[in-house]
Amino acid sequence: MKVNAYAAQNATTTLAPVDIQRRDRGKHDVEIDILYCGVCHSDLHTVRNEWESTTYPCIPGHEIIGRVVNVGAQANKFKKGDIVGVGCMVDACLTCANCKKDLEQFCEKGMTWTYNSPDKLMGGMTFGGYSESIVVDKAFVLKIPKHLDLASAAPLLCAGITTYSPLRRNHVRKGQKVGIVGLGGLGHVGVKLAKAFGAHVVVFTTSPSKVEDALRLGADEVVISTNADEMKPHLNSFHFILDTVSAQHDINAYLVLLGRDGNLTQVGVPAKPLSLNVGSLVFGQRSLSGSLIGGIKETQEMLDFCGKHNITADIELIPIQNINEAYDRLVKSDVKYRFVIDMASLQPAL
Questions:
Q1: Looking at the chain, which runs of residues are DSSP E strands?
Q2: How far apart are CA 111 and CA 22, in angstroms?
Q3: Could you tell me the pTM of the whole model?
Q4: Do 341 and 286 share a structural domain?
């Protein structure tokens, strides 16, 4: 099946219209017309080969909201007209120990990313959501709560689960003090989720201009992390801190804010290793961990939670023709807080 898409042909060219082939719908598959696709910072890293792992042509996009147009004979959990989502992965073995624990992102045989991943069914590489349609195994299709704004819900498929999973795993709840480091595409969703869990939420930012916005999003306090006088009162006081920052920064400055047995989970991935003072962990019995998205069951749980609490991302909706400008703005952090592409703007390649 031939569909329209936007692709990067190498690390230095802009994204431009192309035609691509999607597989024919199988008995376990759901065929989806894409309505909206969020723009994740991972898209930018991959398109520009900043992780040195990109195969071209590359069609990004793993925050997909769409409408079901056809289902396979054994995919009757879904029906034509359903509004569904597709996140960061589209396949896994479903039989290994991790998959059986609903941790498909850690599939022992290797899960398949939504884009730039070896396509085990068609050969070549997977193509993502910067396209008019996609065919996905039913096991990796998610139901979107009906009342959520669909464009604003798209980033939940990555930013939502990336922040929800560590908050949930660390049992964030009422009566706890929780820190969110960074107020960007991940952090702003983390603030909303932590607040919905009932926590006292403190945002750490290097930008005084973000103080008002952090409070609007639900933060109880905002700390300028470069100001030692603002940081000092928070020493040894946090139950949990979620660090969403991908730039180089002093992680030890946040570890010492944790109380005894407190945990800091890193979801931002800096390009270079962070320096760790082990004493920050030892004195206080603190822990440092990482987190990678979430399994399909937990992602559906997150979507249902967001539906219950009416949580979506703050977005700027753009036509696909503005994607290259959006990438340049993303580098400058010039978006509040997530770009989402209106895929109705996609036109056939010339």
A1: 2-7, 16-21, 29-39, 64-71, 83-86, 89-91, 112-113, 133-137, 142-143, 177-181, 200-205, 221-224, 238-243, 258-266, 287-290, 315-319, 338-342
A2: 19
A3: 0.95
A4: no
61 and 154 both lie in a single domain: yes
- Smallest CA-to-CA distance from 50 within 338, 330, 334, 335 is with 330
Instruction: Express each pLDDT in 159-213 by its tens digit.
Output: 999 999 999 999 999 999 999 999 999 999 999 999 999 999 999 999 999 999 9
| Residues 234-257, mean pLDDT to the nearest whole number | 96
User: Does the pLDDT value for residue 350 go beyond 80?
Assistant: no
Q: Are residues 152 and 185 in the same domain?
A: no
154 lies in the same domain as 228: no
Tokens of 189: 């969703």
The CA distance from 206 to 230, in Å, is 12
Q: What is the pLDDT of residues 73-86, one digit of tens each?
A: 999 999 999 999 99
Number of domains in the chain: 2
Stretch (H or E) spanning 117: none
Give pLDDT tens digits for 249-290.
999 999 999 999 999 999 998 878 899 999 999 999 999 999
Domain that holds residue 226: 160-290
Q: What is the CATH number of the domain that holds 171?
A: 3.40.50.720
- Give the helix ranges, DSSP H, for 159-295: 159-169, 187-196, 211-217, 228-231, 252-255, 279-282
Confidence of residue 222 (pLDDT cuts 50, 70, 90): very high
Residue 91's CATH number: 3.90.180.10
Per DSSP, the three-state class of 202 is strand
CA geometry: angle at 141 spanning 140 and 142, to 5°?
120
By the 8 A CB rule, do 206 and 224 touch?
Answer: yes
Cα gap 203→241, rounded to integer Å: 10
What span, in angstroms and rounded, lies between the C-alpha atoms of 321 and 325?
9
- Which SS3 state, helix, strand or coil, does residue 344 take? helix
The contacts found for 223-231 with CB under 8 angstroms, 24 or more apart, are 225/181, 225/253, 225/254, 231/257
Q: Is 28 part of any domain?
A: yes
Q: Clarify whether residues 139 and 164 are in a common domain.
A: no
Sign of CA dihedral 319, 324, 327, 332: negative
